[in-house]
Amino acid sequence: MEGKKKITFDDIARYTNFSKTTISRYFNNPDTLAPESQRIISEALVKLDYKENKVARILANGQTEFIGIIVPEFYHRFFSEVLNQILSTYETYGYKFLVFVGNRNEESERRYIQELLSYQIEGMIVLSHTISSEVLSRLQIPIVTIEREDEHVCSVNTDNYTGGYRAAALLAEHGCDVLIHINSPTDPRIPAYGRITGFQDCCRERGVMHEVMFRAVDRSHEGDLAILREIVGTLEQTYGGKKKGIFLSNDTLASTLLNLLFRKYGKLPEDYLIVGFDNSPASREAIVPISTVGQQVDRLAAEAVRLVVEQIDARKKGRPMRGRKPVHLVIDPVLIRRESTEGCSAEC
User: Fold this and answer.
1) What angle do helix axes 20-28 and 9-16 make, rounded to 10 degrees?
2) Other residues' Cβ atoms within 10 Å of the Cβ of residue 150
3) What would the DSSP string read from start to end of 292-305?
4) Residues 6+ apart with CB under 8 A from 69
5) Under a CB-based contact definition with an 8 Å cutoff, are residues 248 and 261 in contact?
6) How far apart are CA 67 and CA 100, in angstroms?
7) I need a labelling partner for 16 at 20 to 30 A (CA). Which of 6, 77, 78, 93 fits?
8) pTM confidence score
9) How far apart are CA 151 and CA 37, in angstroms?
10) By CB neighbour count within 10 A (0-12 exposed, 13-18 middle, 19+ buried), where does 11 fall?
11) In this protein, which residues make up the domain named HTH lacI-type (predicted)?
12) What is the DSSP letter of 120?
């Protein structure tokens, strides 16, 4: 069976009575054409059944329509949720994504970035903490980070301070005698550090007994389980008979604590209230749904892509972001009350 003839710019030009230059402008810079001209060419492409040769277009103008993404890992489902939302923006912006998982390894991430640059990506979105924003800013491509140190690049973050404050306020509202925050040792330059300070400020303002426990969590399920088992033993020895409000740095950790308590007691004891952070599926799917401070993942992802595309468009128009101050967008968190603080409903 004979294959169909490939439609070329010459064919489109003859069909529309436009020049090849005008047809090229339609594909590479359509805003320079009048709306009526765009309509005529668009209709011609349908009637001629034109299939664009993406490789040829990349070779012609050097624009790949690729954006690189570096995520630290997928142990925390927050990252997979963000990635899913980023990928869904293809229909809006037409950009495709090349994704690498850094696994907290700086050497690996540096290799991955060089690999991405070799594919002539037009921008990059970084969720990993490993490489400093100063180093990232030297790459000379549009970059946006999410929930990480961001002094030298544009970023989109949650208002972590407000989130930590609201988590503590919820636990205090339920009459807890002591509030505990469990987190890994955190660099104050990272936005998530605000969860710690927000928690502490709320406790101090309300005069509530509180403690922040720094442990090397967030590495693996087995490691987190061992650390939380030790913490539960300490809490029961130190605060036995007291109502304990536990605010954990993320939902994955909160779900692990909940599972540990269920294994030990066959239920969530009445003297434990639990709040997580992120509103990842781990909180919604837990055996007792976990109250959490929800990051608006859809907005984080949408704003990150919008911001990197704005920078890409500015470069194409000869207005690069170099020399301008980085843009830092902050998204409000949403407190979500579930059974781990509100008690079980009839369906539990």
Assistant:
1) 110
2) 23
3) EEE--HHHHHHHHH
4) 83, 86, 97, 98, 99, 100, 124, 125, 126, 127
5) no
6) 11
7) 93
8) 0.82
9) 44
10) middle
11) 7-61
12) T
Rg (CA), the chain: 25
What is the pairing mode between strands 291-294 and 272-278? parallel
| Residue in the block written with tokens 């409903």 | 345
Instruction: Give the type of residue at 77.
Output: R
**pLDDT tens across the length of the chain (348 residues):** 344 567 888 888 999 999 988 888 887 777 788 989 988 988 888 888 877 665 555 545 556 689 999 999 988 889 999 999 999 999 999 899 999 999 888 999 999 999 999 888 999 999 999 999 999 999 989 999 999 999 999 999 999 999 999 999 999 999 999 999 999 999 999 999 999 999 999 999 999 999 999 999 988 999 999 999 999 999 999 999 999 999 999 999 999 999 999 999 999 999 999 999 999 999 999 999 999 999 999 999 999 999 999 999 888 887 766 557 899 999 999 999 999 999 865 444
β-pair partners for 335:
293
